[in-house]
Amino acid sequence: MEAQELRDAYINFFKSKGHAQIRSASLIPENDPTVLFTTAGMHPLVPYLLGEKHPAGTRLTDFQKCVRTGDIEDVGDASHLTFFEMLGNWSLGDYFKKESITWSYELLRNVLKLTPDQLAVTAFAGDEDAPKDEETAQIWIEQGIAKDHVFFLPKEDNWWGPAGQTGPCGPDTEIFYIDQTKKPCGPECRPGCHCGYYTEIWNNVFMQYFKDKDGKFTPLKQKNVDTGMGLERALRVLCGTETVYETPLFTGIIGKVEEMSGKKYDEDKKAFRVISDHLRASTFLIADGVVPHKMGAGYILRRLIRRASRYMSTLGIEGVRMKEVSEVVIREYSTAYPELKENEQLIYDTITAEEEKFHKNLKKGMRKFDDMIAEQGETKVLNGEKVFQLFDTFGFPIELTKELAEEKGYEVDVEDFNNRFKKHQDTSRMDTNQTFKGGLADHTEETTKLHTATHLLNAALRNLISEDIRQKGSNITPERLRFDFNLDRKLTPEEIASLEKYVNDAIKAAIPVVCEEMTLEEARARNAIGVFDSKYGQMVKVYTMGDVSCEICGGPHVQNTSELQGFKIQKQENVAAGVKRIKAVVGKFD
To answer: What are phi and psi of 60, to 5 degrees?
Structure first.
C-alpha cells in the first residue's frame, strides 16, 4: 500500500461516518508556549477539546504532520523518527466509546484487512481516581477481539492527561498489531513490550474527567474522543516490512541517497536512515517558515541539517547536495502537503545556505582541533570538555575527533565526553519536548491578551512599515509575545515608537473583538489575513477589531481591546536573513 492510499482510505472512511476533513496545521504551534513544534494530531485542536466551537462541526478527521525532537541522536535505529504523520478522528462532545471503538475495528477489518487474531487492545485497569474500564473491554469483545487479546493496564500506560496540574483527562484504549512471524519474549510479554511482538498502531483517548487543583476527578460535561494512528507504523504493518524505512515513504528518498553515494542501503543503514529522516523533517520545517538559528525551532533545524551532513560525508557524498534529497521529498509529498511545492525555492535556498555554512564550520573546527593538539604538550589524552566544544560549536562528531586524534598519537577521554553529551541531551529533551504528552496550549488570561496584541502588532506592521509583511512565526508565554516577520532591515526607533502608538491607540479606542464563522472564500473577500492558508478548511473563524485588524484565527481573544491596558515593545532582534523579531508586553505602563 502507498502512503497516499492509506491517507485516502482513512479520511474517506471517517467522512462516511459524518466527519469533516480538516487540513494539517503548521508544524509551528499557534499560541502555545509549551512546545516548539506540533507534536500530535490533537495539538492544533486543543481549544475545541476544551469547549470552543469548531467551524467544521463536532466530528473531524485529518492527517497531521508532526515533529518530535527528544531523541534526535537515536534516529538511525529501526524505529525513531523526527518527522511523522498522524491520522486522526475526533468527537467534540458528540459520539463516545461505543462508536469510536466500533468504527476503529471496522476500519481495521474491512478497509485495512487485518484479522482479529492480528490485533490486541488495552483498557484502563482502574485505580483510586477512576474505575476499571470494563465498558471499553466489553465493546472490543463484542466486536470480535478474543478475551485473551484484551489487556488491562495501569494509569502510566492507559491514561491521558491532564497536560498540566489540572484539566481534561481520561482513559484510553491502545490498539496493537501482533507480528505472528515472531513469538512473545516470555510469559510477561504484553502490549507495550519492546520485543517486537506487539506494535502500537492506534490510540483512542476518552476525555471524560476533569482533574481539579485538589486532585479530584469529576465527569466532564463535554466528553471528547481523540484518536491518533501513526501513518508510518501503520504503513509498515500493512506493507510487511521490518522497519518504516523499507516502506514506500522512504524508498524514493533512500534510492536518491544510493544514487548520490554509489552505495546500497544495506551497506550502512544508519547513515541512510539519518539522512532520509533528517532531510525529510528539514524540508517540512523550512516550508512552514523555520529558519536555521542558534535557539528554539531554528536550532533544531540546524542540528538536523548538520547531522545529515555528517552522515552524508560518511557515505562519501561530497559537496553541497542536500537539495537533491529535498527535491524527492517535495515531489513525493506535495499532493498531501501543497505548501512544499509552494515554498520549493525557499526550501532549496535555505537548506543549501546552511549546508555551505556547516562545511565552512568544519574547516574552522579542523583549525581548532590543530590548536588543541598544539596546546596539549606532553598530555596524550584530550579532555572531554574540549572534545565536546568541538562537537557543540563546530558539529564535530566524536568519531571524527577520535580518528583525527589517533592519527596524531592521542586518545580522547570518551567517558568525560559522554557525560557532557548526556547532560546536553537531557537539557535538549527538556527544552524541546517539554510537557506535551499532549501539552495543552496555554489559554490563560495573560496569554489571551497577548494573542490579541499580536494581531494588532501584525496590523501595525502591515499598515505602517510594509503591506508585504507576513508573519513568519509567533510564540506567546504568559509574560510576553514574540512575533517574527519578513523585513530586510532593522526598524528605526521612530518606527518602533509609531508601532507602539498604533497598537496603544487601538487599545484606547476600546474596540470590540468580533468573532464570526464564514467560508474561506468569504474571509478572503474581506481581506482577512491568513498566516498558513494550507491549514484551513472550508469554514474558518475570523476575528475583527473594527477597521484595525481582520485575521483568520482559532482564538482565543479578549472581548475588547481595552482589556490589554497598554502595549510596549521590549526589543527587536535579527532572526535570519530577511527575518526580524519583536518581543513585546501588555499591561499598565507609567
So the answer is: -130, 155
